[in-house]
Amino acid sequence: MRKIYSNKYKLLMFVIALILFKSFIWEEFVVHPTASDALKEENGKTALVENINQKESFGVVKTKEGFKVYALVEDFWGWKVADEAFVSSKTTKKKLNIKRERIQWEDDYIKEVILIATADEDVVKVRAFENNNEINLSKVPNNHKAMYFAYQEDLFSGSVRIEAYSKDEKLLYKTIINQ
């Protein structure tokens, strides 16, 4: 009789330990069931998560200093950050802070990203061109700041021209960034 209670007690303790492990350790520290969950540990507020495919996503987090972008991948334990880049939204004489980065998702899977941040309230539209073909930019607003970005699997060829416009379509700033 005593052995039956002992086995039931052991089984109950095992079930409780399993539930606690799953709830507090596994889901909080080991596995991130979604790409957004992987960004929750990063400083700042998640602004955007774009799915590239089933196992890769592109994430943007707004911080006080600017914007961080993340290459997110799904592996055995769930979603994780594979690579990251930062662009400051603080500008001086220039209207824009521009970065051209290569971000790595998997071993050889690299995308080139263009990050354009501004805190200038006069800038309401930013356009980018590669060989006179317009690059489709996405925008992430953040109070009086904004970040425009584009990424592609193939590296941007040569120079990329960036133009910033006011709300009345007046060209405020123009620059060319090279590789």
Automatic annotation (TrEMBL):
Origin species: Virgibacillus halodenitrificans
Highest taxon listed in the record's lineage: Bacteria
Protein name (record): DUF5590 domain-containing protein
Organism ancestry: Bacteria, Bacillati, Bacillota, Bacilli, Bacillales
